Amino acid sequence: MSPEANANAKQPLDPRAVIDQVRGKMRQLADEFAAGEINRDQFYKIYAHYQAQINLATGLLDQMNQPTPKALESGETIAIRRQFTALARAAVVYYHATGEILEVIGELDLPISEIIGACADLAARVQQFGSAETVTRQVGQSWLLFTPGAHSTAVMLFSAEPVMGQIAIVQNMHRDFEVANEAALVSGQTRAVQLVYPFLSFVRRSVGKKNE
Questions:
Q1: Residue 10 CB burial class (10 angstroms; 0-12, 13-18, ≥19)
Q2: Strand partners, 146
Q3: What's the pLDDT at 168?
Q4: Best CA proximity match to 92, nearest among 69, 113, 115
């Protein structure tokens, strides 16, 4: 092995590069489901595997961005970080064409009325302007993240205010949802087909951490 190759082999992986690479694989997976090349079980298992890699790389990136190495932080500081880390408790998918909720994943302990009105407003903005911005809103002690797309709005219920990295993860998952299920969303046959929900593993992982 040449000195250059040996040096490259010893260089640690850049978490940002890992995230970009895995995101590409997730987009490809959504395309494969849309084309009928894989079934729902395959999609969920592979997507969950990719999501775990994203979570690991995101955690490494967060540690790199901390001014003090995590191992040297006091127990009190670590406890505060854990206490105020936003956990995804539930995901809701609102369908623009009909104004209906397609799916509720997780523990939604808020009235659905807290969600429907905001989703309808975002759907109207998408229809008028072609797109709408992601919105966060505090409801009591919880936070709602509204991520509008071309055909639907994904709503994520968090236990605390989500950070930018978490918002980006949800935005990417919603893009994958719309790509994977595009034919059904465009045709309106959402009840006659089995959709896939990329948010599933994200919510389940957060609920599992809450119960640890």
A1: exposed
A2: 135, 155
A3: 92
A4: 115
Residue 130's contacts (CB-CB under 8 Å, 6 or more residues apart) are none
Range with the lowest mean pLDDT among 6-20, 96-110, 120-134, 179-193?
6-20
Residues 26-48 have a mean pLDDT of 97
Task: Enter the pTM of the model.
Answer: 0.83
Q: Is 166 exposed, middle or buried, given 0-12, 13-18 or 19+ CB atoms closer than 10 A?
A: buried
Residue 173 · residue 199 · CB < 8 Å: yes
The residues pairing with 152 across neighbouring beta strands, listed in sequence order, are: 95
DSSP letter string, 53-75: HHHHHHHHHHHHH-SS-GGGS-H
Residue ranges of domains in the chain:
3-210
CA distance to 93, 102, 170, per residue, from 96 (Å)? 10, 10, 18
Contact 122, 148 (CB under 8 A): yes
Instruction: Tell whether the model's pLDDT for residue 7 goes beyond 60.
Output: no
Amino acid in position 78: I
130/149 Cα distance (integer angstroms): 9
Q: State the Cα–Cα distance between residues 85 and 109, nearest whole angstrom.
A: 19
99-153 pLDDT, tens digit per residue, is 999 999 998 999 998 899 999 999 999 999 999 999 999 999 999 999 999 999 9
Q: Quote the tokens at residue 204.
A: 């389940």
